[in-house]
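Operator note (shift B, R.M.): manual run for Amino acid/polyamine/organocation transporter, APC superfamily requested after the automated queue skipped it. Running by hand, logging everything below so the morning shift can see what happened. Input copied straight from the record, untouched. If output looks odd, do not overwrite the archive copy; leave it for review.
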Amino acid sequence: MSFWTRRKAIDTITAGIDGAHQLKKTLSWPHLVALGVGAIVGTGIYTLTGIGAGLAGPGVILSFLIAGAVCACAALCYAELSTLMPAAGSAYTYSYAAMGEPVAWFVGWSLILEYTLVCAAVSVGWSAHAHDLFKAAGFSELLLNGPHVTLPGGGHGLVNLPAVIISMAVAGLLAIGTRESATVNMILVAVKIVALIIFVALCLPVFDPAHFTPFMPNGFQAHLPAGAGPDAAKVGVMAAASLIFFAFYGFDAVSTAAEETKNPKRDLTIGIVGSMAACTAIYMIVAAASIGASRAEVFSKSEAPLVFILETLKHGKMAQLVALAAVVALPTVILAFMYGQSRIFFVMARDGLLPRALSKVNAKTGTPVLMTLLTGVLSAVLSGFLSLKDIAELANAGTLAAFIAVGASVIVLRLREPDRPRVFSTPIWPVVAPAGILGCLYLFYSLPEKTQRYFLYAHLIGAVIYTAYGMRKSVLAQAEKAPG
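Run finished. Output pasted below as returned.
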């Protein structure tokens, strides 16, 4: 058998996994909904709303709608596949069964890129809200900003130390145990939602429809400056959508918990679809309230736009409360994605595409401690030295690749195995799955050319690793070599 044709059988996808490589089943649907909401509602609404408004103006609301529609198509496909294959690994596992090992490697590598960068991006967003707290504690500006930040007195920052600290703190919590971290997550998600409700309530009395004119000052898609080279900045509704797409995904992290879910056929559907629906409503309301209370070109310059808006409205104490809520609750996003990243790494190692020793589960906690801590270190390094915008855009590229693979997997399996029982079926799948793929391709096209190049470079590195190791060492490759 050629490595191009190696595929996992759906019916045996978790067969042959011994206790040392088996995750504990400790989660139910409330944990999954909280995991999804915790992942989705975070840096995107607390921080990227401002950056998106700077690109699209009030049209950022349309950007949220477009990104949300693409994610909705992907969410429906995820719900079908996660209940069809209730195993850890998310899009990587689905691609392995539908399209084979090389595609699965590409998708798994994209997920590693996505989840690690999301953890880093949210750590940077958290640091922006915690900046004043660390400064009051005596930390120098050199240690509160990365090298990309120009300091008020001249020179540049050295390292974003708060981002490094929160990355490692969340990794430590996850290493303790899945259920323990999920319970903490549920509490922090509640804090985060209450803070957003307070923000909207304070913005509504000063809501000004005039702030929505002109609605799309930069059009649907454009370059600045006009006629410049391939690295010219893209602006407009689609440029903002390709960035704040980051704000919507997170429901895919729920699918990585499939193997640790007590009743995956019921709970995964509720977790994925429920969290996506709830968060779409939250985002549209908060974005509209933000623009109604302050002009987009004003709050777009702030790294903490919701806090900035409340301060301009003379709600100083409430601004501090929302900032504190962000400091307390944004780690739920890091937790959800670091959880997902460690599980993707874990399953790829269990399949032999990465060193199998990395898939060992701690006997006491039931978690892959080594992979969790390694994820924390990678996130800490990236968040300590890179900007939020660059990290978020590159994370989006990896996510879009995974979403495309999920849509393709639904199409392939529907055509190849149309009669296989499905607990949840993607509605109008011949429309929804292709629409999700095409939407993701357009969002990828809308990303900066620099980001697209970095994505290509990352996958060239991944291809070298697969050729040098995974292609020969995978479990399916070893099975081919076995006698008989």
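Quick read of the result: The first helix runs from residue 29 to 40. The longest strand covers residues 222-224.
Leaving this for review. - R.M.
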